[in-house]
């Protein structure tokens, strides 16, 4: 059996374990800003979401991000993140489909 190390992370919204690269990282920076981190390299506390708007909406509804980031997130921050999420979703999906790692 071939073994491949795929780092798994849990989507904070639907609780599913997914390969890290298929998830979108949301980070709370040391400055207290909450933003989407497509590079996955920003410092701060991170939370992961499936690359789909549905999961973002679920996280918004259940305040899953608040819990994951251990910080209350204002509704306007969620609104901003939702807009950012939609704008990165396409980029993210196409990056995933072209990144064909064998
Ligand atoms: Zn999810």
Automatic annotation (TrEMBL):
Phylogenetic lineage: Bacteria, Bacillati, Bacillota, Bacilli, Bacillales
Organism: Paenibacillus lacisoli
Xref: SUPFAM superfamilies: YlxR-like
NCBIfam families, A to Z: RNA_bind_RnpM (NF047356)
Domain YlxR: 9-82
Highest taxon of the lineage: Bacteria
Signal peptide residues on this chain, from the entry's feature table: none
Pfam families (alphabetical): YlxR
Name under which the protein is recorded: YlxR family protein
TM helices/strands, residue ranges: none
């Amino acid at each position: 059996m071939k073994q491949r190390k795929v780092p798994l992370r849990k989507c904070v919204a639907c609780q599913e374990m997914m390969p890290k690269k298929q998830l979108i990282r949301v980070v709370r920076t040391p400055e207290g800003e909450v933003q989407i981190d497509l590079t996955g390299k920003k410092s701060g506390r991170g939370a992961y979401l499936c690359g789909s708007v549905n999961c973002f909406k679920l996280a918004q509804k259940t305040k899953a991000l608040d819990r994951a980031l251990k910080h209350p997130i204002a509704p306007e921050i969620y609104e901003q993140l939702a807009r950012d999420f939609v704008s990165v979703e396409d980029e993210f999906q196409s990056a995933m489909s072209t990144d064909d790692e064998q």
